[in-house]
Amino acid sequence: MSVKQISIFLENKAGRLDEMTKVLADNSVNMRAVSLAETDGFGIVRIIVDDPYAATTVLKDAGYINKLTSVVIVEVPNSPGGLNKVLKVFTDSQINLEYIYALSAGKQPENAYMIFRVSDHKSAEAALVHAGIRVLTQEDIVAL
Amino acid sequence: MERYYQEEIECAAPEKIRGIQDEKLVAQVKHVWDNVPYYRKKMEEKGVTPDDIKSVDDLHKLPFLSKYDLRDAYPYGLLGVPLKDCVRIHSTSGTTGKRVVAFYTQGDIDLWEDCCARAITAAGGTKEDVCHVSYGYGLFTGGLGLHGGSQKAGCLTVPVSSGNTERQIMFIRDLQATILCCTPSYAAYLGESMKEMGMGPDDIPLKAGIFGAEAWSEEMRHDIEKTLGIKAYDIYGLTELSGPGVAFECSAQNGMHINEDHFIAEIIDPDTEEVLPDGSQGELVFTAIDKKAFPMMRYRTRDICTLHREKCSCGRTFIKMEKPKGRTDDMLIIRGVNVFPSQIETVLLENGYQANYQIIVDRVNNTDTLDVHVEMTPEMFTDDITEINKRQADLVKGMLSMLGIKAKVTLVAPKSITRSEGKAVRVIDNRKI
Asked: What is the sign, positive or negative, of the torsion defined by CA atoms of B290, B291, B297, B301?
């Protein structure tokens, strides 16, 4: 059920993110979510797209080193305590979070969508489903 | 089975080779005394005449030549024959200081091509082989030198020269090339490009490669051997002494046999200029005893290496030189410590990176800084920053233990470090000293 995120290596230099996103734009790849983690020398850009396999080919052809990583995308009520409820499930199941970021909410403003990179995405999904929380598939993201 | 191009000399008894050297040295000193006023003056200043040189034992009496002499005598000052007797020139890439222009008679070209043919034959080249030469053709000695040697060895020679990597790979595959001649960095680049084109070692018929003209490490040899599916042989030479082929590797792959019937090698202490015994590390000095147009006497190569005269499993009796550790002028002195680019390359390869790097030296607040730019590879990239940082820290640790000083490691985008298709630019020294 997990969704594939693309992680891309970028040098931490002016204009690098601009160049990379231009490659995606020129190839009509729409980013549904983006997050940037940086150190003083390099950065990792993480993106969610509708078709990760097509996007990785585009990136590879343009000379970008990238990897697919499994992440869990969860529907969170757009109201106080919404995220906390999800995090409690992880805590109870002893699942460690590496990082989180948000997905653009599309046409359904009553919900937000959070992307979680966790220590064990299969157990995380099972625990979330058990708690009655909606976990999104790649098809769900395309449909949002 | 070991193959030889000129077995009678390559495997001659050491006494026989020594006899040839004695005789040729005496004649060469006389030739130079009579025809090269620049060197004659140096001999006179040292109080040496041709009568003082009776055998190789007297070699140490002769004055040295260095890059500075070549610069002072540019372009004709070291010419040993009238220009009308020369048939070709070659020139160095001129990365440091003035270009060196070397002259050749037809005889000089013949003996040089023989040296290259010995190298190609030692790497397994025969009449049945197709030899793909992607050294640059032109003033650079690599292309035309190996080209001539390949033809003498009887190989079908493909003079493809450098550039257009995809076409090169296509030629190697379609024309069934079995031997590749180029710089080691270009061989590695060919391997990378093949991978990108979805090709592996089984897709090309190459069996051996002869790589020289720049420093490369043992780890880089293993890398190239694996990606191209070949045996990689080292070759040594310099334009001043003719070009590639002064020394070449045999099947033992543990040092290069010096073509002692044409060149006498010595190791000296670069500071005191004292000759050191076999087995000591020092600066390599060559005397060309056959070349007539550009007769280099006791030429200081600036290469740091060691000579070994032990019996070789290949049957050749020529003395062997180790792969040069670096050049006295490649050597960087950083915070008072001697650093050779080849040491940094070794650390990179040991840690799973490729040899795509650049060393940037600068001086900030009177302290030298050493920054090593390393290209990220798909194999070393992961989504986990902690892991990347850990691998980066391992590199810093590896360099600290190899060099004795701390380097900063910067990971850069793939293919962002300039690869000229000849020699890679490895060092940028921004210090204003």
From this structure: negative
Does the domain at B332-429 match CATH 2.40.50.140? Answer given as no
Place of tokens 């005496």: B26
Q: How far is B270 from chain A (nearest CA, A)?
A: 40
Closest CA to B295 of B73, B78, B67, B131: B78
- A91 class by beta-carbon count within 10 Å (0-12 exposed, 13-18 middle, 19+ buried): exposed
CATH fold, domain B1-329, is Rossmann fold (3.40.50)
ipTM of the complex model: 0.86
Contact status, residue B222 vs residue B229, Cβ threshold 8 Å:
no
Chain A residues in contact with B389 (beta carbon < 8 A)? 39
Question: Hey, are the CB atoms on B381 and A46 less than 8 Å from each other?
Answer: no
How do the domains of chain B map onto residue ranges?
Answer: 1-329, 332-429
Cβ separation A65–B389 shorter than 8 A: no
The structure's pTM equals: 0.68
Beta-carbon separation of B413 and A67 below 8 A = no
Per-residue burial over B369-390, b = 16 or more CB atoms within 10 Å of its CB, e = otherwise: bbebbbbbbeebbebebeebee
Q: Which domains does chain A have, with CATH numbers?
A: 3-69 (3.30.2130.10), 70-143 (3.30.2130.10)
How do the pLDDT tens digits run along chain B, 433 residues long?
A: 789 999 999 999 999 999 999 999 999 999 999 999 999 999 999 999 999 999 999 999 999 999 889 888 989 999 999 999 999 999 975 444 467 899 999 999 999 999 999 999 999 999 999 999 999 899 989 999 999 999 999 999 999 998 889 999 999 999 999 999 998 888 988 998 999 899 999 999 999 999 998 778 888 899 999 999 999 999 999 999 999 999 999 999 999 999 999 999 999 998 899 999 999 999 999 999 999 999 999 999 988 899 999 889 999 999 999 988 777 767 787 887 778 888 898 899 889 898 889 999 998 877 889 999 999 999 899 999 999 999 999 999 999 988 888 999 999 998 888 765 555 678 888 886 5
Whether residues B413 and A9 touch (CB distance < 8 A) is answered with yes
Interchain CB contact of A117 with B (< 8 Å) = yes
